[in-house]
UniProtKB/TrEMBL annotation:
Species in which this protein is naturally found: Amazonocrinis nigriterrae CENA67
Keyword Secreted: no
Cellular component, GO, one term: cytosol
A matching Pfam family: Trans_reg_C
DNA-binding segment(s): 126-224
Name this protein carries in UniProt: Response regulator transcription factor
Domain spans labelled Response regulatory: 3-117
One MF annotation (Gene Ontology) recorded for this entry: transcription cis-regulatory region binding
A biological process term (GO) from this entry: regulation of DNA-templated transcription
Lineage: Bacteria, Bacillati, Cyanobacteriota, Cyanophyceae, Nostocales
SUPFAM superfamilies in the record: C-terminal effector domain of the bipartite response regulators (SSF46894), CheY-like (SSF52172)
Keyword set, alphabetical order: DNA-binding, Phosphoprotein, Transcription, Transcription regulation, Two-component regulatory system
InterPro entries reported for this sequence: CheY-like_superfamily, OmpR/PhoB-type_DNA-bd, Sig_transdc_resp-reg_C-effctor, Sig_transdc_resp-reg_receiver, WalR-like, WH-like_DNA-bd_sf
Domain OmpR/PhoB-type, chain residue ranges per copy: 126-224
Keyword Aminoacyl-tRNA synthetase: no
Length: 224
């Protein structure tokens, strides 16, 4: 059974989410503070984490940092009451795979849960995609720039995979939403710019040549 960890300090909201996930057939563990949540995330075998942005005891950004530092790549969906674009960008900048703004509908949250569970369940293929000195292994979900390993979030990986599969092509934002994240994606189309920016920062961390080009008013292309 798919196992989801919910870290949420609002007891009533946590219970509501737990019941909705249970109804969909998911096994759910619940933690009500950051430290308890981190301990559970480190001990349990999980398929997904739903993480509140504001937590007592230990911040969500610290939970993410500690998990990723040990190689834990479980997808993380943030729950946030902050609706400003800068706050949403901050959540993505810490490396979260997705976010849901409170108040939200159960259908919205469940759609995003399905997206990330589907990605992890279909990720294992043996094909390697390459462009210039960039390589992506679909089976291991590892990305290298030369000999440098690059750690990507789930959304960043999926976006880069799509660009690598269509080199030298200009890809519009509408096409990314439809073909990379499907119609289940719920969010502002401007968030794509956030993912592109994060990808560029990671791919060019030591002043490497830019590979993702912005075509103003149209979209993005992988090229030199």
């Amino acid at each position: 059974m798919t196992h989801i960890l919910l870290i949420e300090d609002e007891v009533k909201l946590a219970r509501f989410i737990e019941l909705e996930l249970n109804y969909e057939g998911y096994q759910v563990s619940v933690a009500y503070d950051g430290l308890t949540g981190l301990t559970a995330a480190q001990k349990l075998r999980l398929d997904l984490i739903i993480l509140d942005w504001m937590l007592p005891g230990l911040s969500s950004s610290e939970i993410y940092r500690r998990l990723r530092s040990t190689g834990n790549r479980v997808p993380i969906i943030l729950l946030t009451a902050k609706d400003e674009v800068s706050d949403r960008v901050a959540g993505l900048d810490i490396g979260a795979d997705d976010y849901v703004v409170k108040p939200f509908s159960s259908e919205e949250l469940l759609a995003k849960v399905r997206i990330h569970l589907r990605r992890t369940s279909t990720a294992d293929t043996a094909e390697i995609l390459e462009f210039a000195d960039l390589s992506l292994n679909r089976r291991t979900r590892q990305v290298y720039r030369g000999k440098r390993l690059i750690n990507l979030t789930t959304n960043e990986f999926d976006l880069l995979e799509y660009l690598l599969a269509h080199p030298q092509q200009v890809i519009t934002c509408d096409r990314i939403l439809k073909e990379v994240w499907s119609n289940d994606f719920i969010g502002d189309i401007n968030v794509i710019e956030v993912y592109i920016r994060n990808l560029c920062l990671k791919l060019e961390a030591i002043n490497e040549k830019r590979l993702i080009q912005t075509v103003v008013g149209v979209g993005y292309a992988l090229g030199e």
